[in-house]
Amino acid sequence: MRSLGHHGRAATKEMAAGDRDVCIPPLSLPGTLRIPKGAQRIILFAHGSGSSRLSPRNALVAAALNKAGLATLLFDLLTSEEELDRRNVFDIPLLADRLIDAISRIDADTALSRLGLGLFGASTGAAAALVAAARLGNRVDAVVSRGGRPDLAASSLALVQAPTLLIVGGDDRTVINLNEWALARLQAVKELRVVPGATHLFSEPGALQAVAEHATRWFLRHLSPHDHQGSPNHRL
């Protein structure tokens, strides 16, 4: 597997469209990086509880983003040993730290650091994405949550600067209520989108496609290429 650290700079410049296996230091967390030709934006995925970089739901959304010209990075937020302890999938600070580790590696890569950066989180991964966005200030350009638990980001919500889209299923009433609670506490540009007839996993026909369409529009609207290195709000 390729690392996203300093030694990966030249290799990344040569990447064409296609999946590449990568490792996220310092724990060598496995991931899949895909960079469509001419990509100017990259989306990091934070999967939810009980899932991984191989989530078929996130893979579908990632494929739609790739088709729209956005690069994607899906990676495991926990080691195989950590996954054995169920408490870790609800450890939002830990998951946020792993996202920040991945962003740090992107920033160390000259070919990737210039890309506009978005975060896509599902379930508990959505809370981790929002906590990471709050900690990194304007380093994160946009956040999208799918069936997420943004309420678990708690006091971090008011610190998020990135435009944030919350997507929930119309039949997922408990999660709708939690997202409405979180929406009221977000101070940045924000929006709540309800996919009619969808449940928590968006397994109904057309539901995930709707998620992908909403996410793609949001990222294309709010992400632009720029070099963040040296930014005063880049607090890693």
The CATH topology annotation reads as Rossmann fold
Helix content: 25-40%
CATH architecture type: 3-Layer(aba) Sandwich
Q: How do the helices and strands follow one another from N- to C-terminus? A: EHEEEHEHEHEEHEH
Number of helices: 6
CATH superfamily: Alpha/Beta hydrolase fold, catalytic domain
Average pLDDT taken over every residue:
87
- Helix/sheet category: alpha/beta
Assembly context of the chains = single chain
Total tally of structural domains: 1
Number of extended strands: 9
- Strand arrangement, largest sheet? 1-2-3-5-4-6-7-8-9
Characteristics of this structure?
236 residues; alpha/beta; Rossmann fold; 9-stranded mixed sheet; 6 helices; 9 strands; globular; disordered C terminus
Question: Could you please describe the fold and organization of this structure?
Answer:
It is a single chain. The chain is built from six helices and nine strands. The protein has 236 residues and is an alpha/beta fold. Helix content is 32%, strand content 21%. The protein is globular, with a radius of gyration of 16 Å. The two termini are 25 Å apart. The longest helix has 16 residues, at 92-107. The protein has a nine-stranded mixed sheet with strand order 1-2-3-5-4-6-7-8-9, with helices on both faces. The protein has helices at 9-13, 56-67, 92-107, 124-136, 173-185, 207-222; strands at residues 2-3, 19-24, 29-34, 41-46, 71-75, 116-122, 142-146, 164-169, 190-195. It has a single domain (2-222), classed as Alpha/Beta hydrolase fold, catalytic domain (Rossmann fold, 3-Layer(aba) Sandwich), CATH 3.40.50.1820.
